[in-house]
Design goal:
Helix content: 55-70%
InterPro entries: Uncharacterised_YqzF
Keywords: Membrane, Transmembrane, Transmembrane helix
Largest sheet: none
Protein name: DUF2627 domain-containing protein
Order of helices and strands: HH
Organism: Cohnella silvisoli
Pfam families: DUF2627
């Protein structure tokens, strides 16, 4: 039962940022659509753009996508699925000292 609860929590940790990203995308889309719809209207001479809705949507979208992308990146790094350029670099072992046989 404990494993089922852990998996449910893990799914919720991915679904909540995904829903936030989807809602942010919808806010940005609605702001752009409303602006272009007002631009084509006869009664409106200067359409206004709802910057607040667009910026909040962009923030929600970027946070949600960043969280899901970061989670996937670190999970793949842990399981060694990444290419060599994304793996953490291993420090070089120290060079052995070379004794040239000349002693003083």
């Amino acid at each position: 039962m404990k494993l089922i609860i852990q998996r449910l929590i893990a799914i919720l940790l991915l679904v909540i940022p995904g829903l936030g990203a989807a809602y942010g995308f919808l806010l940005m889309k609605d702001a752009l659509y409303d602006y272009f719809a007002q631009m084509g209207g006869v009664d409106s001479s200067a359409p206004d753009f709802s910057w607040g809705s667009f910026i909040i949507g962009a923030i929600l979208f970027l946070i949600g996508i960043g969280f899901i992308g970061g989670w996937t990146f670190f999970r793949d790094r842990k399981r060694n699925y990444l290419s060599s350029r994304f793996r953490p670099s291993k420090p070089r072992p120290p060079r052995p000292s070379v004794d040239d046989g000349k002693s003083e």
